[in-house]
From TrEMBL:
Organism of derivation: Micromonospora krabiensis
Keywords carried by this UniProt record: Pyridoxal phosphate
Protein's name according to its UniProt entry: Perosamine synthetase
Similarity remark: Belongs to the DegT/DnrJ/EryC1 family.
Active site positions: 182 (proton acceptor)
Record's keyword annotation contains Metal-binding: no
Amino acid sequence: MAMLPYGRQSVIDEDVEAVSAVLRSDWLTTGPQVDAFEAELAEVTGAAGVAAVSNGTAALHVAYAAAGVGPGDEVVVPPMTFVATASSAIALGAKIVFADVEEETLCLDPAAAAAAVTSRTRVVSAVDYAGHPADYDALRKSVEGSDALLLADAAHSIGGTYHGRPVGSLADLTTFSFFPTKNLTTGEGGGVAALDPELVKRARRFRNIGTIRERDELRRPDEGGWFYEVHEFGLNYRLPDVLCALGRSQLRRLGEFVTRRAALVARYNEALADLDGVRLPVRQPWADPAWHLYPIRVLDGRRREIYDAMRAAGIGVQVNYIPVHWHPAFADLGYRRGSCPVAESFYSEQLSLPLYPTLSDADQDRVIDVLGAALRGRARPAAA
């Protein structure tokens, strides 16, 4: 029996046709599909504008650059995330300050964030873990009295809402990932949304190697129609037209994706409610998550045992994530285990069950059955 992955893209004929149309056009990159995708993303997210970029890590790098992060600055980051939330700020010379997460949502704890903010803090980065929005109103209060910007790493949560407000309108800067396992895909890709049009402009320039063509901003405006200048260095993080066309097609189904993920989460919650040995994810009443992961906690020190048993039975469970400060690159900088006990305890128990829009009820029932059997010590290897 085939291995069920923990995540999978949903690509249909309309997506293929959208990509094919661009391949037959005059534009493969930096053309009309990019502008259209950015405009549609801004409408869905409630942002002033969006810069489409080449991947989710690039989105973080671009957002930090737009925020002016540089040497001597501090960036506050929760450890329960992928390493790029922190490493992309280090690439700009910043120092990372880790702040622990909340016990229920595993999102950045506003009290821990407030305690971590100093006069050197440039950005406080929240992460919408598993697709559940962080508590942005409380996080706003944590940066009051400072010059820090609030960033939402929304790689998991596009299509979700917080107090009825869409993800993308909740923080000064919001980053998205459009990797195949995410809530919509462009193959590889990402986006940076901002509430301030000036931040949008800075993000777009950084992703386009820092080039400026606007005549009123050129230092030599009369050089000629070919002329451009670079005032601040950037990188080539552009997302091509062909992938933006895929993103536009996917974006039309975002509501469908979010609804199906929510239905699968509800089925998991009902089926696993009385299962001994696990704790289920929590949803706060003020959030309407765009569930990207279904993260359970396996109790009594059995996470590795259950992971191995389910993998052997053809269920592609995953662990999300290794606490960022545990990676050797951070240990070598002096970061130590034990500094974020809530995140570290969660990691020791965390297991992501398969969750994606095309997961059938029958396959989900198979996941549920194998998990129950594994907890009872009776899981069987998958048939060849």
